[in-house]
Amino acid sequence: MNRMPGKLILGGVTGTAAMTMMMLLIAPMMGVHMDIATSLAGIVHAPWMVGMVMHLLMGISSFRWCMGFSCVAIFQPRRLCGG
From CA 71, how far away is CA 8, in angstroms rounded? Predict the structure, then answer.
């Protein structure tokens, strides 16, 4: 059974959570204001929470799926692992 979709979703959740925490907690300490949720919410003229949900959905689903499948197409893990 192929476990790749589960790994991609777990990687998306982990990566999005880590990058969001860095954006909200560490970037202000460096003097950089990065609020992706506000930017996304401003595009659709919605509250901040809608922008955060959009950010999480894009990070968990769209970007991880595209990255995962493009890496499989490029690197072909069966050839690399000898399988």
Answer: 12
- Give every CB contact of residue 77 below 8 A, 6+ residues apart in sequence: 83
Give the residue among 69, 77, 74 at the shortest CA–CA distance from 8: 69
pTM of the model: 0.68
**pLDDT confidence of residue 80:** 55
Maximum distance among all alpha carbons in the chain? Answer: 51
Question: Which string of b and e fits 40-55 if b means at least 16 CB within 10 Å?
Answer: bbeeeeeeeeebbebb
Q: Read off the pLDDT of residues 10-54 as tens digits, 9 standing for 90 and up.
A: 888 888 888 888 888 988 898 988 888 889 999 999 999 999 999
Distances (CA, A) of 42 to 16, 50, 57, 68, 69: 20, 10, 17, 29, 31
